[in-house]
Specification:
The chain is of the alpha/beta class. It folds into two domains: 2-84, Winged helix-like DNA-binding domain superfamily/Winged helix DNA-binding domain (Arc Repressor Mutant, subunit A), CATH 1.10.10; 90-294, D-Maltodextrin-Binding Protein, domain 2 (3-Layer(aba) Sandwich), CATH 3.40.190.290. It contains eleven helices and eleven strands. The chain has helices at residues 2-10, 13-19, 24-38, 54-86, 94-108, 127-134, 151-154, 205-214, 230-238, 248-257, 285-295; strands spanning 43-44, 51-52, 88-92, 114-116, 139-144, 159-173, 193-198, 221-227, 244-247, 261-262, 270-279. Strands 3, 4, 5, 6, 9, 10 and 11 form a seven-stranded mixed sheet that branches. A two-stranded antiparallel sheet has the order 1-2. The chain has a two-stranded parallel ribbon with strand order 7-8. α1 (2-10) crosses α2 (13-19) and α2 crosses α3. The protein is elongated and about 105 Å long. The chain starts with a helix and ends in a 5-residue tail after the last helix.
């Protein structure tokens, strides 16, 4: 197509061959192959300068349209690529992505400036900080409490944070026929409560463990397994394998429908914060602008 466009512009085989950086015999052979593939003669070789046949005129119009479309598409792709590069990458825990991120980003007016890193839904605990350090994301959306195993690292001058909201982990169980919880805290030494637990190095299990240690009443629990995702805990609790702590936002609909009921009163609730984490030194001016926008809406 480019060979033919060069010939249509110059109406001269030698000049067109020079434009295409090939010898004239090679260029002429390529035009012949094009005509063979089209099944029509495109160039009238009997005129000086060369002219296009009616079929050649139609093909030239097609080439011009295709060239414009390719140019326009290239510009659109370049624009989209520029927009994507300007977006701020966010690493979010799976639970917060499902039940907080999208609504928050829309309400804060920053949804179009953020891009979620889907790989983050497989990260656990401190891996989110490693991702910040390595440039795999610009922001981390996570649960926060003072008993995180890597709390000292977070308190260093390398990171900054912003509190967006509060959350509570509430103990839940399936109900029996009367609507009472099948598994009830605190249990007993003889009959401990089966527990669907979280990964010990994640954001949630350390908060639960420390909260229970501070209670005057001992919770007798029998951990059955460990899960990195709160959705996995919820699924196993709803199937009746045991009780588990779930973020209130995630459990709200299940509580309202009665498919899950409280396994203990409010003293067993664990209070959390939802925070954005970032490196102290921003990588781009766009990031600074976004952070400043959020600071006008939320306290640090």
């Amino acid at each position: 197509m480019e060979d033919f466009m060069a010939l249509a512009r110059t109406r001269h085989f030698s000049r067109a061959a020079e434009l295409q950086h090939v010898s004239q015999p090679t260029f002429s052979r390529r035009i012949r192959l094009l005509e063979d593939s089209m099944g029509a003669t495109l160039v009238n070789r009997q005129t000086l300068p060369l002219s296009l046949t009616p079929a050649g005129e139609v093909f030239a119009e097609l080439c011009a349209r295709v060239t414009r479309d390719v140019r326009d598409t290239r510009e659109r792709v370049k624009h989209l690529e520029s927009e994507a590069n300007a977006r701020i990458s966010v690493g979010s825990t799976q639970g917060l992505f499902s039940h907080f991120y999208q609504t928050w980003a829309q309400q804060a007016g920053v949804a179009e400036r953020l891009q979620l890193n889907l790989k983050a839904t497989n990260w656990v605990g401190e891996q989110f900080l490693d991702a910040l350090d390595n440039g795999d994301c610009d922001l981390v959306l996570c649960y926060w409490h003072d008993d995180l195993p890597w709390h000292e690292r977070l308190n260093s001058s390398a990171y900054r944070s912003m509190t967006l909201s509060k959350e509570a982990l509430i103990p839940l169980s399936v109900g029996d026929e009367q609507g009472a919880p099948r598994f009830v805290l605190p249990g007993s030494a003889a009959q401990p409560v089966p527990l669907i637990a979280y990964h010990p190095r994640g954001f949630l299990q350390p908060a639960i463990t420390t909260h229970l240690a501070r209670q005057k009443t001992t919770a007798n629990l029998l951990p059955l397994n460990e899960n990195a995702q709160s959705a996995s805990v919820k699924a196993l609790v709803k199937q009746g394998f045991g009780m588990g702590w779930l973020p209130q936002r995630m459990a709200q609909k299940s509580e309202e429908s009665g498919s899950l009921v409280r396994a203990g009163d409010e003293r067993w609730d664990v209070t959390l914060e939802i925070r954005l984490l970032r490196l102290s030194q921003p990588r781009t001016q766009e990031f600074n602008t976004l952070w400043n926008t959020l600071e006008t809406q939320y306290d640090r």
